[in-house]
Amino acid sequence: MAHLKRESKTVLVRPLTLRDFAAWREGELGKLPRQSIWDSEPLQKSKLSKKRFEAIIAKQRAFRKDDRYHIFGVFEKATGHHIGYVSAMNVVRSVTQSAFLGYNIHNSHWRKGYAKEALRLFFDIAFTELKLHRLEAGIEPKNGPSIQVVKSLNLRKEGLKKRAVFLREKWQDLVIYSVTCEELGYSFRGNPRKGN
C-alpha cells in the first residue's frame, strides 16, 4: 500500500492499518465536544476498543477492494497523531470515473491548514493511483468553513442541488464544488471504456 501514501511537511495521508490502533484511539480521545452541526460526535470511550478498530479496518479494506469507497487516515507528521480522514465515496466507473469527496479533521486540529494540505495530497492519490477523472464535494450552504477549504483549493462551484441528502431528519440542499484531473495538471490514467 506504499503507493497509496502521500506526505507533506505537516501531514501524512494513507489507509489506516491495524498498527494505527493507539494513534486512532488517542485521536478520538483528543476531540473537543462537538463544535457545530457538521462536526463529528466524539466516540464514547467504551467504543474505542481494539475489536471495534479491527472491524473498522476490515470494512475499509472491503470497500477498497470493491472500489466503492476509499477512505484514508490523516496523520499529523510531527506527532504521528491521527487527526482525521479524507475519502473518495460512491465511486462510479464506466463513462464518469468519478467520486464524491469527503474530508473531516478532528476539531482539536482545526485552523491549522490540515484539511487543505490533506486534500492536496489526496488529489494526487485520487488522480494517479485511483485513476479517477472527477471529484465532487457536496456541502451544505451554511457550512462556511468547509466551503472556504474547497475554494482555497480552486474547486469550481457548479450550483445548488435541492434536497440532495437526508441529514438530521430532513432533506438538505448541497452546494456542489468539483474538480477534474486536468484542472490540477494530471493526465487521466483510467479507461472509461473498460470501467476502471
Can you characterise this structure?
Strands 1-2-3-4-5-6-8-7 form an eight-stranded mixed sheet, sandwiched between helices. Helices cover about 25% and strands about 30% of the residues. It is built from four helices and eight strands. It has one domain: Gcn5-related N-acetyltransferase (GNAT) (Aminopeptidase). It is α+β, with helices and mostly antiparallel strands and about 200 residues long.
Summarize it:
By secondary structure, this protein is an alpha+beta fold. The protein has 4 helices and 8 strands, in the order E-E-H-H-E-E-E-H-E-H-E-E.
Task: Tell me the layout of helices and strands.
Elements: E1 6-7, E2 11-14, H1 21-29, H2 50-66, E3 70-76, E4 82-92, E5 98-105, H3 114-129, E6 134-139, H4 144-152, E7 156-167, E8 170-180
Question: What would the keywords be for this entry?
Answer:
8 strands; Aminopeptidase; single chain; 4 helices; 196 residues; alpha+beta
